[in-house]
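Quick log. Single chain, no ligands specified.
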Amino acid sequence: MSRNGTPYHRLLNSPRWKALRAFKLDCNPFCEDCARKGMIVPAEEVHHIRPVEYERNPDRMALRAFDPGNLAALCRECHRERHRQMRSHSPRENAERAKRDAEEFWKKFG
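-> predicted structure:
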């Protein structure tokens, strides 16, 4: 199966995601990371704070993908940096992040 045929990519190509993405950028037109540094830079991309593609269950993947609280409006540079940092995490840090995500999920839905 091609990468574009994965459940994750089908979500990102859906009309629902495109509408949510546009809504997020309308509500947050400036990069959230740059704003914390005192800079005003237009947001061009929407980042999933807790990665969607790590979910195996399609229903949980959709919950995470369309959760407005899991989104950050970012400029391209900050978006690339967030992904760079995520890939540089050690296995221990990844396991701790997964544990925190599970705890947050149970607080919301458990």
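The longest strand covers residues 45-48.
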